[in-house]
Task: structure prediction
Amino acid sequence: MAQIPDALQAAPDVYKLLMENDRVRVLDVRVKPGQKTKLHSHPDRVVYVLSDHRLKFTSADGQNKELELKTGQVLWIEAGEHTTENTGKTDARNLAVELKE
Amino acid sequence: MAQIPDALQAAPDVYKLLMENDRVRVLDVRVKPGQKTKLHSHPDRVVYVLSDHRLKFTSADGQNKELELKTGQVLWIEAGEHTTENTGKTDARNLAVELKE
Result:
């Protein structure tokens, strides 16, 4: 099976690189209502929610999880692969601080 | 010399704990105009700026650095000790993602 691409490679329209060094990579994440990314991978990361929105994450085996997110919320998300879809009516905006090791 | 306290211990009115695990600690940082913290320490961290503001950082030896920060800016700041003072006219608001290792 082909390797699953990184978020920045898979969806450069959604993920923008804000900063990178040998410890972290910081991404600005913006998903419009109805927009859906290709399958991509992330390392362990902190996500800080910058707008109220709804996102659906679907893994390669079809399992999905829908989250209703509120501005100011903080999530810890372990490394994994998924598609990301904005299933709400508002622009989704998050900050992702990905950890390297 | 006494150990320099951690940010949360030194200035609980400025730093609020949003999330913590074995990899990171995430802090909400709010400093009012004219407010100044006691000397405190931080580990290496990512700072994401949540409001336009001006902060002055002063180290134990009196050296200082004043920053004009803009909403959406990202900083990487290495571990160190300082006081933090809001020398501007606007509330200062930042997100700090501190790395453990």
